[in-house]
């Protein structure tokens, strides 16, 4: 078996050069439009960028926008976890149903699963529960909301575009 360090002498390396992978990676980190099927930037690198970074897409520094959303998510999360967010009847919200399909389901599920082993996150989540609704199957819908009190349950719709038929049907 060849060492990964020997990739430079292989056909794979030649294929990467032909595909201009290095240039595409550099373009991605600068906000360039490398997603050819949609003629747009792939901006997940902006999600990991420090607050003062600059990644421009269509003339806009998307890092600023990402951090603006991150700040709102933190405020939302802190308010929910503190119990100060109440429903229409005045009872504190303690349950969340996350409605999403595909990556809008898997991303939150992965984060939730990862944080279950974090002692601080587990402490913050005491007395609260998160459930996921990821398809339009009536049995799954019933399972997702079973035994939840509507007075203490928040339903969150997660979607990149809000055009996915299943997400909109569940919403």
From TrEMBL:
Pfam families: PGI. GO terms for biological process: gluconeogenesis; glucose 6-phosphate metabolic process; glycolytic process. The keyword Thylakoid does not apply. PROSITE patterns: P_GLUCOSE_ISOMERASE_3 (PS51463). GO terms for cellular component: cytosol. One of its GO terms (molecular function) is carbohydrate derivative binding. This is Glucose-6-phosphate isomerase. Keywords: Gluconeogenesis, Glycolysis, Isomerase. The lineage of its organism: Eukaryota, Viridiplantae, Streptophyta, Embryophyta, Tracheophyta. Gene3D superfamilies: Glucose-6-phosphate isomerase like protein, domain 1.
């Amino acid at each position: 078996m060849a060492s990964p360090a020997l990739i430079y002498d292989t056909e794979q390396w030649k294929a990467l050069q032909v595909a201009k992978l290095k240039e595409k990676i550099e373009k991605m980190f600068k906000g360039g439009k490398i997603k050819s099927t949609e003629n747009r930037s792939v901006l997940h690198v902006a999600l990991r960028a420090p607050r003062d970074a600059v990644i421009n897409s269509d003339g806009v520094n998307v890092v600023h926008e990402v951090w603006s959303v991150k700040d709102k998510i933190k405020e939302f999360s802190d308010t929910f976890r503190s119990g100060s967010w109440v429903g229409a009847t005045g009872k504190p919200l303690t349950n969340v149903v996350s409605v999403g399909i595909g990556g809008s389901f898997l991303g939150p599920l992965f984060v939730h699963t990862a944080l279950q082993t974090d002692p601080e996150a587990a402490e913050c989540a005491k007395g609260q529960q998160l459930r996921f609704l990821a398809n339009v199957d009536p049995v799954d819908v019933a399972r997702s909301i079973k035994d939840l009190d509507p007075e203490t349950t928040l339903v969150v719709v997660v979607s990149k575009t809000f055009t996915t038929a299943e997400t909109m049907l569940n919403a």
